[in-house]
Fold this protein.
Amino acid sequence: MLATLMYGPGDVRCEAVDDPKILKPTDAIIKLSATCICGSDLWPYRGLQPTDGPAHMGHEYCGVVVEVGSEVKTVRPGQFVVGSFCISDNTCPHCRFGFHSSCVQREFMSGAQAPYARVPLADGTLVATAELPSADLIPHLLATSDVLGTGWYAADAANVREGSTVVVVGDGAVGLMGVLAASEMGAGRIIAMSRHAARQKLATELGATDIVAERGEEGIARIKDLTGGVGADSVLECVGTQQSMTQAIACSRPGGSIGYVGVPHGVTFEGEAMFFAQRRMLGGPAPVRRFLPDLIERVLAGRIKPGKVFDLKLPLSEVAEGYRAMDERRAIKTLITL
């Protein structure tokens, strides 16, 4: 089969590889209905994260089970499934506490930018739908696998509540899904920080009530102005840079909560400043598996359409262009057809 491999910064190729096989009795093989490129894939693409290429790319996936290992009990061939980018057993103490992304058997999914993929710990990782979904639902279900689940976790970690004032730092796919999540959770005001017209438009469509284009000190001042000098109850940090984290902390009110899901690169904290800031903070890799059943149900019921975040669709053979488009901010998120 053809699959996506990253050889190094800026070097993504679609090449022939062996089909995946069952390696452990807890594995499943799925035929993907669609796949996509994640914003986190851009860190190694830009040379900001080390890679040991050629690396098999892709960790967002949904599709139909074609084969299962001898110990798999909860999914079977022919079922449509969605899985998290974090592989988990769904039974360990951390999973039972709701933090599947810290599972004692945790692995990170890879190789999903391809027609077929092996999913370890299938019983704990995959969630099956009752029926095969229609083609128009596939992009929305694919989004639940990571980008929506991560945005949802950012809102959950930031303690978004009915009537909350929320600030979303970052207008990439995760930030936009954070806007959607905050809206679904009943936030009264959602301020999206974005400087790009197309992303501002989508943020508004997904539930943002205000747009702030300024960044840095000007952005912080604008948030304070919009909140009467108080700051936001909840802030979603969806980038992972020092600037975005500093901005998130400064935009939060004392006693407010920050949910941070941007993979940190060069982020540091000064102890005394954090001590007097008095902010709650929770984040890290999203425990998407915790949210999957609810998010899938919302999609199937037509309540949410997270697939709107895909603004570029390309065949697998053109996956390198999908990376370039996202790197150059010509696309928010690229859907790859198979």
